[in-house]
Amino acid sequence: MSAKENFIWGVATAAHQVEGAWLEDGKGLNIWDAYSHTPGKITNEDTSAVACDHYHRYEEDVDLISDLGVGGYRFSISWARILPDGKGAVNQKGIDFYNRLIDGLLAKGVTPFVTLYHWDLPLALQMEDDGWLSYRTAEAFARYAEVCFEAFGDRVKHWMTFNENWCTAVLGNGTGLFAPGRVSDDEPYIVAHNLLLAHGLAVKAYRDGHYEGQIGIANNCDFREPLTDSDEDRAAAQESLEFFYGWLTDPVVFGEYPAIMRERLGDRLPEFTPEQKQLLKGSADFLGLNHYTTHYASRTDQVENAVSSEDGNGGISDDQQVVLSSDSDWPVTSMGWFVVPWGFRKMLNWIHERYNGLPIYVTENGTALANNDVETAIDDTERAEFIQSYTNAMKEAIEEDGVDVRGYFCWTLMDNFEWTRGYDMRFGLIFCDFETLERTPKASYYAYREIIQSS
């Protein structure tokens, strides 16, 4: 990485997964607070009430981040900790917490990368305004963003509006797997539309405020490799990527949805007004990529090792008309995701080519190992090998292919509340004992530190 002296090696978390303190210091409820306290929704009936207790232990965690040797820490702000009902009075104690965290990071030489929204919508906005089905929520988000810019913009120079809008739209409002748990074939497109407009309004506020820094968006995507060289399979792979990453990224770069989506969906895909297209076009200074796995894509359903669209994390399958499959030789993580480093390299190239060389940050990449015993969990050579292989693939994309990747954020700093999987899936570089809350760095923590030092 010698050609990239300013490359940022980092680590990432999300507020709802680590903070805990769900009823403290004026914080309001969010949709995941409600969802995780609903019987039958979360593995083992786990809740996020305490999580890693990062809210009280952030100083210890900042020390661990610093000792890891990373240059950046990506974290999210809890909207309901800043604006308890999403749109009313500002909660100063919430502002104070993030000020302490940001100042603590800067004192250690760690650059904060802030995500404004990582799925934890204030519950009042869901109950009163139908959440992301309403444009009113987009307007409320823009106001929340302005509060954050004003409070932290003097020190935070790297912002992401949203994390993985695909999950909010499809898992939250399509399959019903995630909060708010709605099931629909059409609502995901409405939700995504309002999320994109919220992004545009927030970016306009940021740029109108003349803050010194950059603002982008972090979307997730798995790579799609054509199963064969046939024209049909090539089209299937391309369209799958457009339905996944393009759906939520094309508008912030080009001001419009991918043409295949307009063609395939017709009136089910909302239209942007000319003013909204202008608002959105060019509204990302950089693109984030959260990447975890790869699949083969085909038009035919006569394939071996087929995976369901939900397992494949691939979108609304009936609309895509794509069959996903895997290779039996690919290693599989505890989440059932395939380890395919070359797919990561190809994904980075696809983004680079489609979006005219816009800077890319790998905002998440990591692996889950379901080891709940500390002695077993800290000897996580599989995770260390995963990080090594994926960062090697990224380096090839940068050095051999000329892709402009500015940073890599390993997911995640420490084991935490893994959404509907509760505490049984561990993505962390650090083991967290959820009874004592003791933190223990794993082998992968030291392996990642070595990667950073030798780059």
Helix/strand-derived category reads alpha/beta
Q: Characterize the biggest β-sheet.
A: 8 strands, parallel, barrel
First-last Cα distance: 6 Å
**Mean pLDDT over the full residue set:** 96
Number of helices: 17
Query: Shape, please?
Result: globular
The percent of residues in helical segments reads: 40-55%
- Strand order within the widest beta sheet: 1-2-3-4-5-7-11-12
Rg for CA atoms = 20 Å
Which blocks of ≥5 consecutive residues have pLDDT under 50? none
Short recap of the structure:
The protein has helices at 15-18, 31-36, 54-68, 79-82, 92-107, 123-129, 135-152, 165-173, 187-208, 231-254, 259-265, 274-280, 317-320, 341-354, 374-377, 381-399, 443-454, and strands at residues 8-12, 72-76, 111-117, 158-163, 214-220, 223-226, 287-290, 294-298, 306-307, 323-325, 360-365, 405-411, 430-432, 439-441. It has 455 residues and is α/β, with parallel strands linked by helices.
Commentary on this structure:
The protein is α/β, with parallel strands linked by helices and 455 residues long. The protein contains 17 helices and 14 strands. The chain has helices spanning 15-18, 31-36, 54-68, 79-82, 92-107, 123-129, 135-152, 165-173, 187-208, 231-254, 259-265, 274-280, 317-320, 341-354, 374-377, 381-399, 443-454; strands spanning 8-12, 72-76, 111-117, 158-163, 214-220, 223-226, 287-290, 294-298, 306-307, 323-325, 360-365, 405-411, 430-432, 439-441. The strands form three sheets. An eight-stranded parallel beta barrel has the order 1-2-3-4-5-7-11-12, surrounded by six helices. Helix 7 (135-152) runs parallel beside helix 9 (187-208) and helix 14 runs parallel beside helix 16 (381-399). The longest helix has 24 residues, at 231-254. The chain is globular. The mean pLDDT is 96.
